[in-house]
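Weekly structure sync - notes
Attendees: PM, LS, DV (DV joined late)
Agenda: review two folding runs queued last week.

Item 1: First target. Sequence and structure tokens pasted below for the record.
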Amino acid sequence: MRQIFLDTETTGLSADNGDRVIEIGCVELFNRKLTGNNRHFYLNPGRDSHEEALKVHGITSEFLKDKPKFEAVADDLLEYLQGADVIIHNAAFDVGFLNKELELIGRPLFREFVASVTDTLVMAKEMFPGKRNSLNALCDRLGVDNSGRTLHGALLDAELLADVYINLTRGQDALLIDLGSTDSTGPSIAQIDLRAIELPVLAANDQEIAAHDDVLKQIDKASGNKTLWRAAA
């Protein structure tokens, strides 16, 4: 399974009111392993960031003035994302901005290029109802090191999100043993779902019960008749 963790930074909060994407970070996982095949773009939005947005990401107009427009990187980005399962924290925000960028250059909507979009904010709210579920809060809760996140950055946030997602999904996926080989020189073995296996219950026979009682009596005697099961009797 090819998954892309994606994050953006923008000039403000409203794509409909003219705010633009200034940074895109993508991190690839294949079969739940980092591949190093990532993408990172800084973009010239043709406008300044709002003061509050600048406080969040720290990316100045001066830094961005020689960076490419979105149109110049769109083909590379869309080819990279083609057919992937894309995972975003607060997906509505990032997808809304990417849709606006694509609309401005006459391209189809974002979801036309990817297999699916998963929102980890929705996942986290279902798993931790009533709790803070920002990326920082999830990092703290799940033991993900975010000490380098003094400012928001799209690539760093995508990397943190990948780590958070692995932790969020570990409970269910721990029961699925993926034996599929990604090595083209080796065989591909189907995934085994342990949830489909019904384990038999074997009752102890009379001899085993008697042996167990004998062990308990020996432990009780060695403790001076102070075992917990005697006290509870």
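Item 2: Second target, run right after the first with the same settings.
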Amino acid sequence: MEINITKDWDNTLLDRKEITFNISHTGATPSRDEIKNKLVAQLNSRHELVIVDKIRTEYGTQNTTGYAKIYSDVDRANEIENKYVLERNEPKPVEETEKPAKEESGESPEESTGEEAVAEEPIAEEAASEESAEEKPVE
């Protein structure tokens, strides 16, 4: 993934720097976290000061365009940005993205496999009884 900043300007009224960028990547569109980490490294900024606002990948291409804002301090970012934008730009914990769906619901893998095995047995018995009913001639 390579990020090229196409335009940057200072917005002195809102006390931030704004940039537009192009990303050339392979495979799926990079996540907001990946883009943000790359921008932080490239711009020598802090993670909480960079807000990735828009990301757009045109259908069928592996080029993404985007818009980001780099604030001078955290208080100014919290004052200006909407709450949902700030939540969207928070880093996601690695543990949550790697857990399977059953572990998130609070069940352990042993409990869920036992319940599934019990649920499958009656279904097999019903299917066998239906087959035997079809084989018997009707009098």
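Discussion on item 2: The longest strand covers residues 2-11.
Action: LS to circulate a short write-up before next sync.
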